[in-house]
Amino acid sequence: MPANLTPDYLAAEAKFRAAESTEEKLEALDEMYATIPKHKGTEKLRADIKRRISKLREKEKQSSKTGKHVDLYHIERQDAGQVVLLGPPNSGKSSILAQLTSAEPEIDDYPITTREPMPGMMEFDDISIQLIDTPAISHEHFERGLTSLVRNADIVVVVLDCSNYELLDHFEDIRVELSNSRTVLVGEYAPEVDYPAGTVARRALVVANKTDLPGAVENLDVLRECYGNEFAIHPVSVETGEGIDDLRRVIFDALEIIRVYTKVPGKPPDMSRPFTLKKGSTLLDFAAIVHKDFVHNLRYARVWGKNVLEGAQIGRDHVLEDGDVVELHA
Ligand SMILES: Nc1nc2c(ncn2[C@@H]2O[C@H](COP(=O)(O)OP(=O)(O)OP(=O)(O)O)[C@@H](O)[C@H]2O)c(=O)[nH]1
Ligand SMILES: [Mg+2]
Hints:
By secondary structure, the protein is α/β, with parallel strands linked by helices. The protein folds into 3 domains: 7-66, no CATH class; 82-255, P-loop containing nucleotide triphosphate hydrolases (Rossmann fold, 3-Layer(aba) Sandwich); 258-329, Ubiquitin-like (UB roll) (Roll). The chain contains 10 helices and 12 strands. The chain has helices spanning 7-18, 22-35, 43-66, 93-100, 145-152, 167-180, 216-227, 244-255, 283-290, 294-297; strands spanning 82-86, 118-124, 127-133, 155-161, 183-186, 200-209, 233-235, 257-262, 270-278, 300-304, 312-314, 325-329. The N and C termini lie far apart (66 Å). The model has no long low-confidence stretch (mean pLDDT 92).
């Protein structure tokens, strides 16, 4: 944060953070631009304000053309699952999105580069999983739309910067901001508890990024000590590529989904694109997504998979496994 920011500027910035509509945001940004001291130290910040103003003006123009209000925090789920990346400023959320998908988010060492959610599709084996990059969370910066984004997602990946010794506070800030709107992040090893009515619990895992930087090993140890018995912690470095490929499988596993393939009688299975279902789904759940008529017509099915005899006949309640090939008989 550049020095010598005036109280007027800080008040305008506070107004911006509290603003809900595009109109209010624009008004506050104009005020920020008008009150910011003009010297070398604020050059980057001024450029950033200008960029935000023109982006919002563009958005306003677009929505007045279509006449529709666009909720940037409502992103249609695509393919096998929706994963929201959350984290403090600069932890590498956008870098991870860029590394795992073909999306091209802005990446910068300036804090709060990302201003709105951005989705991208991550390939894993023969399926795709949707990842969503988001604006940073800190004790002084929380976009309200993030709550609904988290509530609608399947899982959350918290991206922390493990070269930063304040990473425990960063994680706590995120949990506190979400819990203020009755949304709880739950780790893989957390004990099962009943939450009060209205509270939504979302499975979360932690990605400790920037393992290439000094101090990372020590901070990672502290993180593991404090949170390792509750959350799965996966160290990575976007810089060196350490842990990045494994991260695809880690995310797939956390989604707790299975892939099931179809087979028409007398033909080889269709291995081109599987159906995806929640772990624990039955033959009837699968039949219903293949075709709604199967819900009534299904007589039996045959399955080829890891834990069954090849081509064994199964009933409607049979629980399917990842990789099963199923031949439906109406
Ligand atoms: N050394 C190192 N730098 C990294 C790594 N990952 C990201 N960075 C750098 O960290 C800075 C911030 O990265 P971003 O991906 O923009 O971080 P972000 O979390 O999206 O930041 P905001 O959008 O501002 O919240 C950039 O300069 C990146 O190049 C890493 O693994 N190691
Ligand atoms: Mg970003």
